[in-house]
Amino acid sequence: MYVILDIETTGGKYNEEGVTEIAIHKFDGHKVVDQFISLVNPEKEIQPFVVNLTGINNNMLRTAPKFYEVAKRIVEITEDAVIVAHNAQFDYRILRTEFRRLGFNFERKTLCTVELAKQLLPDAESYSLGKLVRSLGIPVSDRHRANGDALATLQLFKLLLSKDLDKTIFKSVLRTETQGELSPRQLDMVDELPSETGVYYMHNKDGDIILLGKSSNIKKRVNQYFTNNSPKARRIQKETKRVSYEKTGNELAALLKENAELLRNRPKYNNHYKKRLFSHGIYQSNNQNGYIALAAEIINPKKKAVATFNSLQGAENFLHSLREEFQLCNKINGLSQAKMHCSHFENNSCLGGCINQEPVEAYNARVIQAIDKYSFSKKSVLIMDKGREIGERCGIEIKDGVFKGLGYFNLNHQINNIHILESIITPMEGNENTTHIISSYLRKKKVLKIIELNQ
Question: Taking residues 85-95, what's their average pLDDT?
Fold first, then answer.
C-alpha cells in the first residue's frame, strides 16, 4: 500500500517551517482507496515568496485546523503504507519535525518519484514535477497546491510502476518488510486480487518472482494454483509469500507483458517457456505461371514468413479463410492435391488458378491485399484497445513493422502529440515472438482501433 503525499509549508529556516496544507491519497497500486486533504494553521507567518508561489495566505489559515488536530488522521491513513512523494526527503522531514514537536516519533518507509524517474526515465530533460509531468502529457492543475501536486505525483507514480518491468519498486518495498511465515492478511491474498485481465506475479520471501502468467481472471487463476494438489503446485504454495498483479485492461497487452517479463525475470516455475512460440508459417513465392502462391510450411529460419502459427492445421485453416475473404485459389496455394483442377473448378467457382482464366495482375493484387491486411511488415501503427479504467486506452506501438512497447493514455489529452506518445510508451523488445503474438491475436479478435502513425 502506498500513500501519495504533498505538503505546502510556510518557508523559512530549516526545520522551523510549518505545514500550511497537506494532501494524501492512499493508493493500493491500482486505485485510490482513501484520501485526506486539508489546509493547516501553522501558527506562524507565511513567507511572502511562498504566498506568491502557492496563493495560500495567512487569512486563509486562521480558521484551519492546527497540526495536532489532523495528526491522528495522518497517522491512520499512512499506517502500514509507504510514503511516495516528489522529493520525498523534504516532505518526510517536515512531517517528522511536526510530529516531534508533539512528542511523537513518526516513522514510515518512503519512495521518491524523483529518484525513481531518474532510473526509469533516464532521458527526461528535467525532473522537477511541473516540467516532468508536462513532458509526459500528464494533466496538472493547481500547481504548487498540495492536492494538485499530489494528484500529478500519483499519475507519475502510476506511469513509473508500468515502466518498472523488473519490479524493482515492489522488491525494494518487500525486502524491507518483516520476513517470516504468512500473515493473516497474506493468507487472504487471493481475496484481494481482481477478477480482471492482467499479469500476476508470485513472490518468495526475498521479493523475487517465482511464477508469473497472464489471465483474463487473475483471482481465479491464482486461486487454482493455491487449491491444486500437484507436487509443483504445493511447492509454489509453500514458497509464495506475496502475490502482486498488474491490470492491463485487455488480453493483447497481457500477452505482451507476460512474454517480456518471462524473458526478463526467468521465474523458476515458468520452465516451460519456449524460445519460439510458433512452429509453422505461410511463405510467399511465385509459381511457374507468375501467380503469387501462399504455402503453409514448417518454420524455415532462412525465409521470412508472411504469418506464423502453432500448427500446420492452423496455417492451412488460415489459407482457407483467405480464399473465402479474398477469393484466392486453393490449387495455387497448395491446399488442393488435384493433378489438374481444384474442387472448385468443377462447379465453376474456381477463379482461374487452375486454367489461368484470370489475369495474373488481377489475381496477385488480391493476394498482396491479403498479405497487407494480415502483416505489419514495414508498417508504423498504434493498436488501440481497452485500458485499465474508464476514460483510458491502451496503445501498442509498432514502428517499421517492429513492436516497440505499450502504454496507457488519457482519452482527452495524451494521444494528440506524437512526442508525448513516444515518452509514455514503455519500451519493450520486439522480436519474432512479439510479432507472432500480435498477428495471431488480431487474426482471432478485434481491437478498438488501429491508427497509422506519421513518421
Answer: 88
